[in-house]
Design a protein that fits this description.
The chain is of the alpha+beta class. Helices cover 22% and strands 9% of the residues. The chain has one helix and two strands, in the order H-E-E.
Length: 68
């Protein structure tokens, strides 16, 4: 076996991102956690948006937004 083994946390993060991408989302996690980018993969610009989490009211179109 060559190289160092990845930690459990690193493997879980990679699996989560892979699942988001398989579902058709960017999947980048917000730096503070509890939000993931729900734009399409390889979206233009570096602005990430979670359309599902972080909305202030039910009528809001977007939730948490952040820059990469």
């Amino acid at each position: 076996m060559t190289g160092q083994r990845k930690s459990l946390g690193m493997r879980k993060a990679e699996a989560t991102e892979s699942g988001w991408r398989a579902a058709g989302y960017c999947g980048l996690e917000h730096p503070e956690g509890k939000a993931w980018c729900s734009k399409p993969p390889n979206h233009a610009g570096r602005r990430h948006v979670d359309y599902y989490n972080g909305r202030k009211s039910l009528g809001d179109a977007t939730g948490t937004e952040w820059d990469e």
